[in-house]
Amino acid sequence: MSERVSRLSQSVDSLRKFCSDPITEERDIAGILMAFSYSYELAWRCFQDAAVAEGWEPTGPRNAIRNAFRLGLILPDEAEMWKELQDDRNNVAHTYRKFWSEQLVPVIREHYLPLFEKSLVRLQSRMIEGGTSDGSQSGY
User: Which residue, 46, 69, 56, is CA-closest to 120?
Assistant: First the structure.
């Protein structure tokens, strides 16, 4: 398993743990938001690695997510939720609003964590298969 996919797995595990713990303090929310941001960053970079293994140019997070859709790492019924996830992550990174952050935690728990988990499984499966769509070996 590539180092980046391994780190994504660890980050998703942390997010899962933080989401399962009761929220008793503001730092619990901060932990969920931080693990969410880390998982997002690692996910899009893993998607980009998969696209580069296909011979596509690295292009940044938005296109990496589009390419993940093209590669089957994101399924059609998940595409809109990934757009929302990306927008919410950008809001977390660039504007902190306590009320909004508190409202985001249930969305992360119920919708975004499962998206990360599903895409992680697909990335791991793709790595086990060890190839790209043209049959060559991937290096991510």
Answer: 46
Tokens 């990306």 sit on residue:
86
pTM equals 0.87
Number of separate domains in the chain? 1
Domain that holds residue 111: 3-127
8 A C-beta contact, residue 23 and residue 105: yes
* CATH code (residue 20): 1.20.120.330
Q: Are 32 and 105 in contact (CB under 8 A)?
A: yes
Question: Using CA atoms, how far apart are residues 5 and 104, in angstroms rounded to an integer?
Answer: 25
Inside any domain, residue 86: yes
Q: Choose the weakest-confidence range: 42-46, 52-56, 132-136.
A: 132-136
**Whole-angstrom Cα distance, residue 115 to residue 103?**
18
76, part of any domain: yes
Which band of pLDDT confidence, cut at 50, 70 and 90, is reported for residue 1?
very low
